[in-house]
Amino acid sequence: MTKTPGHHLDEEALLGYASGSLGEAESVLVATHLALCPTCRERTSTYEAWGGAVLSQIEPSRLADDALSKTMARLSQTEASEPPCGQAAFDHATVMTLPRPLRDYVGGNLDSLPWKSRGRGVKELPIEIGDGSVRASLLRIRPGETIPQHTHEGVESTLVLKGAFSDETGTYARGDVAIATADHDHAPVADSAEECICFAVIEGPLRFTGPIGRVLNLFVRS
């Protein structure tokens, strides 16, 4: 039986998603969490219903005569430039680890992706999402390994997709979301039972603070 996530997104994130006001990377993280969390799906559905009720009370505005033809043309261009990523293109391990909202952005099987080493037992896969104003990536951490101690110049939102990790704020397993800010200086440790795979969206660069932090800071953007 799948365990329901215990660490959820806050009201602001869910309202932003329901209203369409989040950036693309943040929206992908929320959508991926919703695929794993029935509690937040229910809350988001409520917010979307509220929004629909508000919209129904607004006086409609007349669209331009060519609005429909322009919209259909844009949809056709999108379909031509972005081939569909059907579920059959992915192996079983990838399908079981990555929910569909994120899987379509990754575009390949986990073991065939161009992971970048980020130190002993830690790999990263940067993912191009949106305008690049935030850093989006998958992290793959060997069992029992530690991400070097670091703090943040913005908000770091981390969604666990496989395994678990712990820091001073608690333990996070599949479906859980950990939020860290500039007030956090932590060194997350992957559970020893299995590797940990996470999806992270980071506003601003990380700043490593441990004994080898100055060296790692030279490579964090590579």
Notes on the protein architecture:
There is one protein chain. This protein has 222 residues and is α+β, with helices and mostly antiparallel strands. It has a single domain, classed as Jelly Rolls. Helix content is 33%, strand content 22%. It has 7 helices and 11 strands. A 6-stranded antiparallel β-sheet has the order 1-2-3-10-5-8, covered by helices on one side. A 3-stranded antiparallel β-sheet has the order 7-6-9, with no helix packed on it. A hairpin with an 8-residue loop joins β2 and β3. The radius of gyration is 19 Å and the shape is globular.
The number of helices is 7
Instruction: For the record, give the distance between the C-alpha atoms at the N and C termini, rounded to a whole number.
Output: 40 Å
Q: How much beta, percentage-wise?
A: 15-25%
Give the overall form: globular
Task: Write a compact overview of the structure shown.
The chain has 222 residues and is α+β, with helices and mostly antiparallel strands.
Supply database-style keywords.
222 residues; alpha+beta; Jelly Rolls; six-stranded antiparallel beta sheet; 33% helix; 22% strand
Task: Set out the fold topology.
Elements: H1 11-19, H2 24-36, H3 38-56, H4 67-81, H5 92-97, H6 100-106, E1 116-117, E2 122-126, E3 135-141, E4 150-152, E5 156-162, E6 164-167, E7 170-173, E8 177-180, E9 189-190, E10 196-202, E11 206-208, H7 213-217
Antiparallel strand pairs: 1-2, 2-3, 3-10, 4-11, 5-8, 5-10, 6-7, 6-9
Helix pairs in contact: 1-3, 2-3
